[in-house]
Specification:
Blueprint lengths: L7 E10 L2 E11 L4 E5 L6 H8 L7 E6 L2 E2 L7 H5 L2 E4 L11 H11 L5 H14 L15 H14 L4 E5 L7 H16 L3 E5 L3 H7 L2 E6 L2 E6 L1 H6 L4 H12 L1
Length: about 250
């Protein structure tokens, strides 16, 4: 019996893009400190669900509460709310003319209202957490893809979010650079960060996730502990998907 209420609670989420019905009534509760891994074929609605959770997309119907904040209320200051729910994308979205530290401190100054001195101290601490303290003065072009993605993670964690969303964080990286990003995600997990991850890194899902959620065609088809989903899925569609990825 879980006494605490979930830190993320999404209920009845629908999303239409014109005639396309991408999410068809998704319910997802995530407990504090839980790492939830969302898998499924392309076009199943995984990334759209993440983008709805932090209001990058407005759901067509449903409710979303993150850390006690009603994300869909017109009264909610969405920029303030997004400080609670960090997001890391497939593309790093770094400003090319700014250093790593500049990229990390921008939101601390502009959104969180920190002084430059305070922002720099927090930014350096965040870069240290992702193993890039010595790259603070480098611009994105001087960094590898893996390092750029770690700067993007540092930028998100510098705001001290309560929840982190990862949308295919390693899919744009060369294979040899993936490990460094997963290592940072693993350390975040160990520090107790609540994380919702959309990714094809099934080895990481198996090793690190508390729960794996399988989506197909805009719905959650099945969810459970990694061992159950990967070794003994109960739904035909899950079995077909797992069988397909294990052959590759």
């Amino acid at each position: 019996m879980r006494v605490t209420s979930p830190i993320v609670s999404a209920n009845g989420i629908h999303k239409h893009f014109g005639a396309l019905h991408v999410l068809k009534g998704v319910d997802l509760d995530v407990a504090e400190r839980e790492l939830v891994f969302v898998i499924g074929p392309s076009g199943s609605g995984k990334s759209t669900l993440l983008r709805c959770l932090n209001r990058l997309e407005a759901p067509s119907a449903g409710s979303i509460v993150v850390d006690g904040i009603d994300m869909l209320s017109p009264k909610t200051d969405i920029n303030h709310a997004r400080q609670r729910i960090g997001m890391v994308f497939q593309s790093f979205n770094l400003y090319p003319h700014m250093t790593a530290l500049g990229n990390v401190t921008l939101a601390l100054r502009k959104v969180a209202g920190k002084s430059r001195t305070e922002a720099d101290a927090l930014g350096r601490a965040a870069l240290e957490r992702v193993g890039l303290a010595d790259r603070a003065g480098h611009r994105p072009a001087e960094l590898s893809g893996g390092q750029q993605q770690r700067v993007a993670i540092a930028r998100a964690i510098a705001l001290e979010p309560r929840v982190m969303l990862f949308d295919e964080p390693t899919s744009a990286l060369d294979p040899e650079l993936v490990g460094s990003v997963l290592a940072v995600m693993r350390s975040l997990r160990e520090s107790g960060m609540t994380m919702i991850v959309v990714s094809h890194e099934m080895g990481f899902a198996r090793a690190a996730a508390d729960r794996v959620v399988f989506m197909d065609d805009g719905l959650i088809v099945e969810q459970g502990p990694p061992l159950q989903i990967f070794e003994d899925p109960s739904h035909d569609r899950t079995r077909a998907f797992i069988g397909q990825i294990q052959r590759h």
